[in-house]
Amino acid sequence: MFHVKNLTVGYGESEVIRGLELDLVQGEILAIMGRNGMGKTTLFKSLIGVLGCTGQSSIEISGSEVSQEPSYKRVRYGLAYVPQGRMIYPSLTVEDNIRVGLETAKSKKIPSYVYELFPVLAEMAKRRGGNLSGGQQQQLAIARALVTEPKVLLLDEPTEGIQPSIIKEMARTLKKIRDEHDISIIVAEQVLSFTLEACDRFLVIENGEIVHSSLRKDVDAEKITKFLSV
Amino acid sequence: MGDYTIQEIYSVVVMQSFSGLSLLCIFVLMGLGLYIIFGQMGVINMAHAEFLVMGSYTMCLFSKFISANFPWMMNYYIILAVPLSFAVAFGVGYLVEWLLISRLYKRALDTLLATWGLSLIFQQCFRSFIGAREISADLPDWLMGTWMPTDSIFIPVNGLVLLALTIAITVGLVLFMTKSRLGLRMRATTQNREMSNALGVNTKMTDRLTFALACGISGIAGAFFTTMASTSPTAGTNYIVDSFLVLVLGGLGSLLGLFISAAFLGILSSVLEFFMSGSLAKVWLYLIIFVVLMKFTRGLFSARIRT
Question: DSSP 3-state assignment of A186?
Answer without folding.
Answer: strand
